[in-house]
């Protein structure tokens, strides 16, 4: 009788209509596939049941988080090789319904059902790390607070392991030349990451033209890195707002340790509840992804209202590629179920349009896409180096969620599936004097 790996390899190829780019190692110890390829480890039949009940990305993610699937070798290589078979198929290159019209594919699915065993009749329970009560993009103050708590209240000690001493959870700004380097090149996650995050914060401060005595609102202030940097190095007074209690506690301690309590206030507050404008500048770094498509204009209008005439907004936000049919878009299953519940991504053009509809004049858009691939690889290196500690602080499943999430996103940025952009906008006063220099990009560094 054919071993499990050979059967799996044959059946998967029949379903996909092409050869698998990875080698399979099955639960019986057998292997099949290209000899030099990275190895996808199918540890048990439950992995097949998860894929059969939820074909595509979410089924694969559930199997990974539960430990039913693993990788022996370079995780990035497996994700990169599998990207075409997962992402592009789910985007319509060859959907499941079309696949199953092929008699060979239908026969292969029947073979997978037999190989999965009798228990295939019942769907495996999702791993406990999965969100069981979908928020469905309501984006009320209550649901947004729940979503933020799920992602950010994992534990400050865990985030310190991943992010390093800077505690900056957004794309870093790497020195000239680094983004063009080989994506597999080693990144100094201890020193270079810190320098790149410092440079990113300073880039934002320079784009905002911060000056001593000004008021800055930092929306989604995280663990206080931007607030501390702006107050300490640029002399501004900062109000930082977050929905995460754990972030606020951490940020307030950092502010106190830096001796900046007279210049920095950290609040647990929704952006819709801020009423103490005007501010001279607003930074929103990695926060707008949580706002939601239906609420984005309201978000932009609120920030416009809080800015003084001539004030600047720096909106640092992840984007996605546009689709021909935008009505068919939904955030991918794994991210929504395990990482960013209720998160929504938009093309950068949509973001610019909404900011302008709110009254802003958009003056500069800078893509940092390659920078995020490098940043994510540095975070993965941090997680790998402290894996046992990360598991002890959370759970094996939660640590696997973060490893898959960061590695897959790194591949997504490198393959131009995802982007990240800094949009600089001005609340231009009546009369049109924006206050911007004629040659604005003196901040390029």
TrEMBL record:
Family: Belongs to the CFA/CMAS family.
SUPFAM superfamilies per record: S-adenosyl-L-methionine-dependent methyltransferases
Ranges where the Polyketide synthase-like methyltransferase domain occurs: 158-429
Presence of keyword Methyltransferase: yes
High-level lineage: Bacteria, Bacillati, Actinomycetota, Actinomycetes, Kitasatosporales
PANTHER family, A to Z: CYCLOPROPANE-FATTY-ACYL-PHOSPHOLIPID SYNTHASE
Family matches, as CDD domains: AdoMet_MTases
Keywords assigned by UniProt, alphabetized: Lipid metabolism, Methyltransferase, S-adenosyl-L-methionine, Transferase
InterPro entries: CFA/CMAS, CMAS, MeTfrase_dom, SAM-dependent_MTases_sf
Protein name: Cyclopropane-fatty-acyl-phospholipid synthase
A Pfam family annotated for this UniProt entry: CMAS
Organism listed in the record: Streptomyces graminofaciens
């Amino acid at each position: 009788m054919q071993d499990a790996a050979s059967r799996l390899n044959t059946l998967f190829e029949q379903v996909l209509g092409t050869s698998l780019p990875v080698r399979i190692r099955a639960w019986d110890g057998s292997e099949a596939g290209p000899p030099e390829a990275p190895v996808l480890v199918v540890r048990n039949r439950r992995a097949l049941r998860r894929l059969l009940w939820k074909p595509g990305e979410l089924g694969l993610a559930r199997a990974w988080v539960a430990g039913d699937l693993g990788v022996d070798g370079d995780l990035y290589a497996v994700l990169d090789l599998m990207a075409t078979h997962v992402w592009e198929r789910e985007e319509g290159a060859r959907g499941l319904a079309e696949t199953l019209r092929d008699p060979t594919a239908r026969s292969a699915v029947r073979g997978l059902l037999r190989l999965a065993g009798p228990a295939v009749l019942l769907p495996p329970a999702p791993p406990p790390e999965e969100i069981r009560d979908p928020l469905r993009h309501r984006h009320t103050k209550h649901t947004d607070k729940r979503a933020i708590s799920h992602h950010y209240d994992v534990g400050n000690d865990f985030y310190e392991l991943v992010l390093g001493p800077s505690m900056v959870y957004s794309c870093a700004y790497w020195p000239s030349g680094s983004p063009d380097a080989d994506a597999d090149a080693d990144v100094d996650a201890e020193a270079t990451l810190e320098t790149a995050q410092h440079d990113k914060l300073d880039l934002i401060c320079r784009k905002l033209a911060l000056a001593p005595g000004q008021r800055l609102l930092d929306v989604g202030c995280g663990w206080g890195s931007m607030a501390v940097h702006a107050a300490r190095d640029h002399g501004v007074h900062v109000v930082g707002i977050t929905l995460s209690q754990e972030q606020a506690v951490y940020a307030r301690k950092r502010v106190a340790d830096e001796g900046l309590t007279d210049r920095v206030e950290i609040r647990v507050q929704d952006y819709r509840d801020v009423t103490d404008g005007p501010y001279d500048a607003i930074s929103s770094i990695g926060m707008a992804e949580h706002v939601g498509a239906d609420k984005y204009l309201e978000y932009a209008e609120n920030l416009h209202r809080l800015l003084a005439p001539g004030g600047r907004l720096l909106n640092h936000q992840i984007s996605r590629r546009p689709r021909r049919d935008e009505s068919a878009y939904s955030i991918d299953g794994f991210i929504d179920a395990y990482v960013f519940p209720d998160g929504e991504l938009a093309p950068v053009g949509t973001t610019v349009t909404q900011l302008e509809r709110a009254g802003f004049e958009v003056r500069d858009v800078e893509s940092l896409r390659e920078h995020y691939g490098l940043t994510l690889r540095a975070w993965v290196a941090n997680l790998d180096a402290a894996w046992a500690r990360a598991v002890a602080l959370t759970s094996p499943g939660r640590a696997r969620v973060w490893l898959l999430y960061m590695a897959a996103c790194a591949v997504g940025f490198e393959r131009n599936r995802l982007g990240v952009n800094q949009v600089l906008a001005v609340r231009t006063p009546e009369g049109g004097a924006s206050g911007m220099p004629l040659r604005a990009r003196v901040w390029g560094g």
